[in-house]
Amino acid sequence: MKAMILAAGLGTRMLPLTANTPKPLLRVGKRYLIELHLEKLSKAGISDVVINTHWLADQIPAALGKGEKWGLSIHYSHEPILLETAGGIRQCLDRLVDAPEDSFLLINGDIYFEWDLTQWLAEAPA
To answer: pLDDT digits over 81-112, tens only?
Structure first.
């Protein structure tokens, strides 16, 4: 299974914190919010992740690189014009599924959650 993290939003509700920083790069303790997602994805056995970017787009790849730190392969899908949720997914759908029946995990890059992703995926219907 592959995963996508939605990280292209403008972050307007978090202004002024997001005036110069994409919301997924805001810190939770000493780490970026999006790092918490990457750690959970890696722990759950997901190795391929697509992250879409738009607002201050260069900062996200600069902060995360190609994913080696988490044992992941991160691909970036830049949106010069904000495509919104469905458009962002559609733009990189070919990186997320290999066949029409394939599924992928979708996470909003600007949320915080504590539930066990590994357990949740193990209990999710196939």
So the answer is: 999 999 999 999 999 998 888 889 999 998 88
Q: Is 118 exposed, middle or buried (0-12, 13-18, 19+ CB in 10 A)?
A: middle
How far is Cα 26 from Cα 93, in angstroms, rounded to an integer?
Answer: 27
How big is the chain by its Cα radius of gyration, in Å? Answer: 14
pTM: 0.94
Task: Spell out a b/e string for 46-76, using b for 16 or more CB atoms within 10 Å of the CB, else e.
Answer: bbbbbbbbbbbbeebeeebeebeebebebbb
The H or E element containing residue 32 is strand 31-32
